[in-house]
């Protein structure tokens, strides 16, 4: 597309000579602007993808993809039969009876906080990778013995708990006595501490054996829900229809993760789209810098263009020379930004730790951002779109200045030069 002569002239114009350094400096700023815009866009989009994936994985890893509930307030009486029927459906990974309720946690050290107590069979809890693979103290081997409990690490730190200590659960649904309603209190021994990596779960969730939770919450023959995991979380609608068909005639309702967390993930998606639009403006501004630098280069090289035209260079050759000069800035800046963005994303947690050590401040508070580490997931198609946009805008920015150069009258150029 470009002849050796055109390439030689274009790259010669990009190198500054004495008295032409201002044009070269603007070209360098344009290259840096494109590189920073592309790198920033790749990094931010990767972090937003990481947030969504981490939150989705941790929320669904603990709460399940679907929940089968009773349409009445009495709970599910035949929960084992419902779970068995659901497990037989195609695409279902597991179906687990759960009893849960809001409680107040207190410890012997005097600490107190609210949270959620979940009753689950010991074998089902051990089958949960998010819990079983993230035990930080103790063991799940004793879980299931009388009056045992598993707590989150942040909750344990808040209440000053260690393995073997007692934690007391206080239910707001008290029991009636002759002197009035008295809150239900029960002490349990801490046998394990988990760290799911999400602040909300680590600081407010505990797990009891299912039978112990049924006694405590007065659900002796019922379960709050049957928690269901499916093979493909994005196709929960198909699983929902299959569950309704398998449980036809039973007074149940099915709630999937999309309905349960719709506002949360919608907010993440809106924020991601807005950040993409805002950061795209950086690349657009850098593209305008390319326009300004090329226009100044055309003005500065008016006499050279006239000489080239008089010795036989066509207007098309002049057009291609300045297209190549501007596109070189854009392509180089885009590729540099691509490299910086990928390196930053691959080492983002190490970079965060290093910056925290240098500044002495916490840059990623788990209590604010829900997660305990900064995630980044690079989507190849998304990166390709960013790189393509950077190169496309850079190429578009060169069209008008190159067209101006090609239309320059040689006589006027020699006269004014």
TrEMBL record:
PANTHER family: LIPOPROTEIN-RELEASING SYSTEM TRANSMEMBRANE PROTEIN LOLE
Residues annotated as transmembrane: 22-48, 274-298, 318-346
Provenance organism: Roseomonas indoligenes
Family recorded in the similarity comment: Belongs to the ABC-4 integral membrane protein family. LolC/E subfamily.
Lineage, highest ranks first: Bacteria, Pseudomonadati, Pseudomonadota, Alphaproteobacteria, Acetobacterales
One Gene Ontology cellular component annotation held by this UniProt entry: plasma membrane protein complex
Keyword terms, alphabetized: Cell membrane, Lipoprotein, Membrane, Transmembrane, Transmembrane helix, Transport
GO BP annotations, alphabetical order: lipoprotein localization to outer membrane; lipoprotein transport
Stored InterPro entries: ABC3_permease_C (IPR003838), Lipoprotein-release_system (IPR051447), LolCE_TM (IPR011925), MacB_PCD (IPR025857)
Location(s) in or outside the cell: Cell membrane
Signal peptide: none
Superkingdom assignment: Bacteria
Name of a matching Pfam family: FtsX
Topology of this chain in the membrane: Multi-pass membrane protein
Domain ABC3 transporter permease C-terminal: 277-410
Domain MacB-like periplasmic core positions: 29-243
Protein name: Lipoprotein-releasing ABC transporter permease subunit
